[in-house]
Write a structure and sequence with these properties.
Number of domains: 4
Shape: flat
Structural class: alpha/beta
Strand order of the largest sheet: 4-3-12-9-10-11
Strand content: 5-15%
Distance between the termini: 104 Å
Number of helices: 21
Helix content: 40-55%
Radius of gyration: 31 Å
């Protein structure tokens, strides 16, 4: 081998070693800033070296997970891999995101709701609508406003951008609910219908290309419509939202307009986009009354919050997120469980129930039923003891990584909703807990025997009677216990 070939070989070997050691060097010295991955996930923690862990294999298994998730430049390599899959194969590592025509991004669950795959059946829809109508009438009797708001489903509004092969499989919860609402004369706002009618003629996009929610222009339009509807139909005179005079156009996407794109964790920071509209918010007639507002809803309400109407148009704002969490966020993680719903109903005038089509399968998440019972005097508060215990157990399930990972995997394999499976896991855990407690709790007869044995004076009397009757002490104690229980009955 020539000297030149040997030098080239040595250079290649050196470069390979450098490449192999770069992740170790980066992990140790942190020479470069690496962007964090976005999304909801938990990294495996490091594990302490203990001899028992080593011989059982637990150390090796967990250490391998930790190293695989924490080596230098891991996030960059993950983003690079995701970028290659996206550019070459139009695939994404995010199982919740679907890539449509012209790279429009959709949430998988929203497509399933549009095609009717998650239809819960007419019986449940009719029952839900009946409770909503009853609650709306009951609140109107008390001078309050209860208004269901149907947020738009991007998969329905922009169905022409869905990937090939998507087809209608059943009537959707949305379509069935509209039929029911109209028959029962329920007052509601339907932004699904409005966006479908106007997305082609709208001066600005109502949905972002790389986001699953409504655009900033879209949620501002919705907020303004809600205010005007309440003022006109319920004869309320609130302050007004002024936003159409000052709109900024930008291709630097803000707020929720790139939430699906962020979740793909691509190498490039932002994909090219059309210009989106970002209104500047002002308020008129601010001296007018600001009625107290309570919202029960999903993430579409976050867009409405960005307009500031919850504090500038309304007052005493509370947001019950999926009717299981009290927002704005509190340091008290159990704030929702402690909420006195009866007092909140008394103190608020306007109640909005906001959900996109995907969440109509359980519209209200129990709020209409619970509230109607309170108004009818059947319940006093938000939670009974069992429900409170289940809700707290749900928090335990979500905080326990291994437990929650099992639930997520089960949801993926069974094509079921994660929140539903979390609730089922919590209920099962509470049931087992009660069963164990009841099993471990002594029966009254055993408790009486223990009480006799713990009382020295009592035991002295029982011993005397046992000696007098010439029977074993244990028999005398059991006889005394039976007699005491009979007397108590």
């Amino acid at each position: 081998m020539s000297r030149r070939s040997q030098i080239l070989k040595n250079i290649l070997i050196f470069l390979m070693l450098v490449i192999l050691f770069i992740p170790l060097i980066q992990n140790t010295l942190k020479l470069f800033t690496v962007r964090d991955l976005k999304g909801s996930f938990k990294l495996s923690p490091d594990i302490e070296f203990i001899s028992e862990y080593w011989f059982s294999g637990l150390f090796q298994e967990n250490k391998e997970k930790y190293v695989n998730e924490h080596f230098g430049f891991r996030n960059t390599l993950v983003r690079t891999n995701n970028q290659v899959k996206f550019n070459l194969f139009k695939k994404t590592s995010n199982i919740e995101t679907v890539i449509g025509r012209d790279n429009y991004l959709f949430a998988k669950a929203y497509i399933e709701s549009y095609t009717g795959e998650n239809f819960v059946g007419s019986e449940k829809i009719i029952a839900t609508c009946g409770v909503i109508k009853a609650l709306q009438d009951k609140m109107q009797e008390q001078g309050k406003i209860f208004l269901p708001v149907l947020a738009p489903n991007k998969a329905r509004v922009l169905n022409n951008y869905l990937p090939a092969g998507v087809s209608i499989k059943n009537i959707s919860n949305y379509e069935a609910m509209l039929i029911c609402f109209k028959k029962l004369n329920v007052r509601y706002l339907d932004f699904n219908a409005y966006f479908m009618e106007n997305y082609k003629t709208s001066p600005y996009p109502l949905h972002p290309k790389y986001g699953v929610h409504w655009s900033s222009y879209g949620h501002t339009l919705a907020a303004d419509s809600i205010i005007n509807y309440i003022n006109y139909h319920y004869h309320v005179n609130t302050p007004r939202l002024d936003w159409k005079k000052n709109i900024v156009l930008s291709d630097s996407l803000r707020e929720l307009d790139y939430d699906a794109g962020d979740g793909m964790n691509l190498f490039i920071d932002r994909m090219p986009s059309e210009k989106m509209a970002y209104p500047a918010y002002q308020y008129k007639d601010t001296a007018n009354a600001r009625p107290p507002l309570l919202v029960v809803g999903d993430s579409y309400n976050f867009g409405l919050e960005m307009t500031g109407i919850q504090n500038r148009i309304f007052s005493d704002y509370k947001f019950l997120y999926y009717f299981k969490e009290l927002l704005p966020y509190s340091e008290d993680k159990e704030a929702f469980l402690k909420l006195n719903l009866k007092e909140e109903i008394e103190n608020h005038k306007v109640f909005l129930m906001i959900a996109t089509e995907h969440n109509l399968k359980d519209f209200g998440w129990g709020f209409p039923e619970k509230t109607l019972n309170i108004l009818n005097g059947k319940e006093d508060n938000i939670m009974d003891d069992y429900t409170r215990e289940v809700k707290m157990m749900e928090m335990v399930v979500r905080k326990n990584k291994d437990w929650y990972d099992d639930v997520v995997e089960m949801a993926f394999l069974s094509h079921r909703d994660i929140d539903t499976l979390v609730m089922e896991a919590a209920r099962h855990a509470v049931k087992l807990k009660h069963k164990k407690e009841n099993k471990e709790k002594p029966d009254p007869f055993t408790e009486m025997i223990e009480a006799i044995k713990d009382n020295a004076g009592w035991m002295k009397d029982v011993e005397a009677r046992a000696a007098k009757k010439k029977i074993p002490l244990d028999s005398a104690i059991r006889m005394e216990a039976r007699w005491q229980l009979q007397v108590k009955q």
